[in-house]
Amino acid sequence: MPLPQPPLPEPAHPTVDSMLSRRFGKEVANYFSGSPLNRVSFLRPDSTFLSTALVHPSTTFVLFNNLEPLISSPSALATATFSDVKSIIGDSPFGKSEEDVIKEYNSSLYIPQIVFLGLDERKEGFVYKDHYKGQPWFAVDVTPKSSVTDSAGKLIEGLKAKGLEFSKGRMHLSLPAQEAAIYAEARHLLDWNARNPFCASCGYPTLSVNAGFKRTCPPRDIAPSVQSPDRPPCATRTGISNLCFPRTDPTVIMAVVSADGQRILLGRQKRWPQYWYSTLAGFLEPAESVEEAVRREVWEESGIHLGRVVIHSTQPWPYPANLMIGAVGQAIPGGEEVHLGHDAELEDAKWFTAEEVREALRVGTSGLGEEPGPDYRQGGLRLPPATAIAHQLMSAVVNGFASGTPMI
Amino acid sequence: MPLPQPPLPEPAHPTVDSMLSRRFGKEVANYFSGSPLNRVSFLRPDSTFLSTALVHPSTTFVLFNNLEPLISSPSALATATFSDVKSIIGDSPFGKSEEDVIKEYNSSLYIPQIVFLGLDERKEGFVYKDHYKGQPWFAVDVTPKSSVTDSAGKLIEGLKAKGLEFSKGRMHLSLPAQEAAIYAEARHLLDWNARNPFCASCGYPTLSVNAGFKRTCPPRDIAPSVQSPDRPPCATRTGISNLCFPRTDPTVIMAVVSADGQRILLGRQKRWPQYWYSTLAGFLEPAESVEEAVRREVWEESGIHLGRVVIHSTQPWPYPANLMIGAVGQAIPGGEEVHLGHDAELEDAKWFTAEEVREALRVGTSGLGEEPGPDYRQGGLRLPPATAIAHQLMSAVVNGFASGTPMI
Domain named Nudix hydrolase: which ranges (chains A, B) (predicted)? Predict the structure, then answer.
């Protein structure tokens, strides 16, 4: 199976005879994971670090226009330099301490979003406090709007003249694994900042701090249109509030096998192409374990009663903010009858033999908007590509994840 | 080890010889999971269902005052009936369709929060559409405020006269497992609703719908103080927005073992009692797999470099909204030196022998505010109680989770 599987980040190779690898084998790294960057998250509030990292000659910028990434081809992110983006973000966007930035908050000013993504420690050059080394990566939102309409428009013209473009479409599944992981981090953070301009606790506008990883509700706002600069108290200012930090929604996605281990349950949504099926999935709810969420979702969507559930692997999915938690679940004897009447989410759910799934993984996979390969025969089962964790889960089941030897 | 371990919910017992149980054994169910309720989430928008469930004679209410649950003793939730709460929530809080409730939205009215928790299918009585049966459970916020100050105050007086009380303190770890799971669901949802009265996308007040599981941003507000009832467009109204649904923050927590499998790394925070240590933990960030988050957090907090990471089990943790994802990670050879200088979160982190941890699990565990048992000797390692997933992870390591046989 040709997998755009990212290698584990360095240093991440256990000793060959270590107990964990002995029992569990190599870790499954799904598409969008496997970033080469060290996020050094504790340096994000440090304006000296950010200011020096921003202007280092090795520093690399990925640009987004309305959440569409700049690419040089469908399989390559394009990168930019500080001089490219200076007209948008200014000479010194991290020139003041966070404390001062909060003090001088003015909600009428548009500040293009910058996200510090991390240091690529494989590249030499930039060094901070002797300890933190590597090529700094940032993401910048260059959407032409508000005070940067002209400068961003001009920048975009120039990029287009160089043959670069902002990739249309929602999904970006053709990037090499490590670029995909960098793109995923940037997209998730830019989307979160754009989606949350107001404080859910008090309703006032918020300010991005921590290089894009936090939104704070300033106690004062000196915008001329505001009647009084002092704002009412806000609960997010007393102690640590999760509302200030990026949201990630845990989602369960599961390969369901029959009680005898011979069949796999797949479902389809109405909007999908004909013959296309996938594993069931849904959001984990408050106060559920992963296993409980898997059993609830499978029952609600298909009527199947599951017994044992085992977590297989996880996948970041930045559309907009999911953590996909992949699992394998087994139906209990007598609990295998499909019933679509509880929740109306699926158009169909049915049991397939392992042979059907194995054949479809060989000849019937593609992206949702694409055609399957030349060996696919009309009417055969179609499945998602290897970049989707659904594909990995089905593959794991037909290749014996659960039994230690191929189960079917 | 005396564990308040909830049984798996019915129907959840795989066949004895099923492939999953053969390989993986019994699932670990942590405290706060294992709810006996079927949430029938697809019935939450159905006002006919909610109206009839609310007033059924078997229906049970758990009450909260400022997020503190009503209890009859530290180890028992107290429950109430519809006639108890009628003065707070009114005769027919689900009497109108959701569509009408949204149309008639008036932000000046205080609506006490009601959450539909699920059906206890073990109890007969209530039946809906022939298919959905069981005792309905609801949570109600009876905090005396706004228009219910008097009625809630009176209700609370009456409850106190019966010897009931609202449990002070943040953690509730003495409830029987299934009550703890019901409490966790209720607390997480009430907290989320209370914490998010405004729309993060447009800043306007939002309205609770779906029996407490969704907050919507109505297009009109007929409150007399509002200048124009029609509100500006809001992005959460076009398509499905994650902002409308409860937030759950994925958190990683991990037992770290040395490269030779002989020692366990534990850390402590300054505010903890003397000699008290626990596993490291932290929030998963955008676009990280669970394994990546574990490696990043461990390196940032302790300087240790991890290789292989294996997910052990998960735990809902409703303070306020966490999904704890428990893992075991192994240090790489040469990556075991403790360095606390990256992130300043821990006061100390150090390696303990398995024997020290095993002994502390036997004699040195307790809640944070409690004393350890009589066999504890001053100066010995202290650890969290069995209700914490940290305890389960340490126990799993010294009992051989990773190797199949006790590893140390």
Answer: 246-381
Per-residue pLDDT, A27: 76
Nearest-CA distance B262 → chain A (Å): 11
ipTM > 0.90 for the complex: yes
Q: Which sign does the torsion angle of CA B203, B244, B168, B66 carry?
A: positive
Mean residue pLDDT of chain B comes to 91
Mutate to test the interface with A, among B19, B27, B195 (most CBs of A within 10 A): B19
- Residue window 121-140, chain A: list those with CB within 8 Å of chain B: 131
Taking the CA of residue A160 and the nearest CA in chain B, the distance in Å comes to 28
Contact yes or no for A272/A369 (Cβ under 8 A): no
> Which A-chain residues 272-291 have CB contacts (< 8 A) with chain B?
283-291
Distance, in angstroms, between A308 CA and closest chain B CA? 6
What backbone phi and psi angles, to 5 degrees, belong to A102? Answer: -70, -40
Per-residue pLDDT reduced to its tens digit, B143-177: 999 999 999 999 999 999 999 999 987 667 789 99
User: Taking 80 as the threshold, does the pLDDT of residue A14 lie above it?
Assistant: no
Phi-psi region of A66 (alpha: psi -120 to 50; beta: other; left: phi over 0): left
How does pLDDT run across B262-292, given as a tens digit for each residue? 899 999 999 999 999 999 999 999 999 999 9
pLDDT average, residue stretch B41-65: 98
Whether A42 sits inside 8 A of B289 (CB atoms) is no
For B95-128, write each residue's pLDDT tens digit: 999 999 999 999 999 999 999 999 999 999 899 9
Looking at residues B22-42, what average pLDDT do you find?
A: 84
Q: CA-nearest residue of chain A to B305?
A: A11
Closest CA–CA distance from residue A158 to any residue of chain B (Å): 30
* pTM for the model: 0.93
Residue B27's pLDDT band (cuts 50, 70, 90): confident
Give the helix/strand (H/E) hosting A116. strand A114-120
- pLDDT score for B329: 94
Give yes or no for B340 touching A (CB within 8 A): no
For residue A118, what are its two tokens? 């991390």
Separation of alpha carbons B389 and B316, rounded Å: 10
A192 reaches B (C-beta below 8 A): yes
Interface residue B107 vs chain A (CB under 8 A): no
pLDDT, tens only, A157-167: 999 999 999 99
Establish whether the linkage from the previous residue to A218 is cis, with ω within 30° of 0. Answer: no
CB A395 within 8 A of CB A1: yes
Domains defined for chain B, CATH in brackets: 25-193 (no CATH), 249-398 (3.90.79.10)
A23: left (phi over 0), alpha (psi -120 to 50) or beta: alpha
Q: Does A9 touch chain B (CB under 8 A)?
A: yes
Q: Chain A within 8 Å of B194 (Cβ-Cβ)?
A: no
